[in-house]
Design brief:
Length: 131
Amino acid sequence: MSKPEPSMDEWLAEGKASENADKCGMFLAHNGIVRATAKAQVRQGEEKPPVAQVDFSYDAAGVEAAVADALTWDGVYFAKAWLNEGVLEVGESIMYVMIGADIRPRCIDALQKLVSKIKTDLVVEKEIFAE
């Protein structure tokens, strides 16, 4: 059973109302979802059966620290993340991440860096294949 998802409209409103909103020239959001194609198939071209579910967990304190760290990066003035947990079905959201930054290149780079940090170091994903 997944957690209730956040509203990107509310997050954007929060970002635009934040203390440093006047320094942000861009807000960018990421929504990762469970896909039916296995990670090894997408990344390494290995043949795999379709994914039916993903058992997903994460280090909550680590995600909180990663978001706080993102706010120290050059040009980043807003950062927020939400992660789901449990056994997730294909099509369900895994995570949302939003970055607000001064210029487009910094915003794009910061979003990519934060999502990469979370996915590489702070989550455990176990694909459950269809039989």
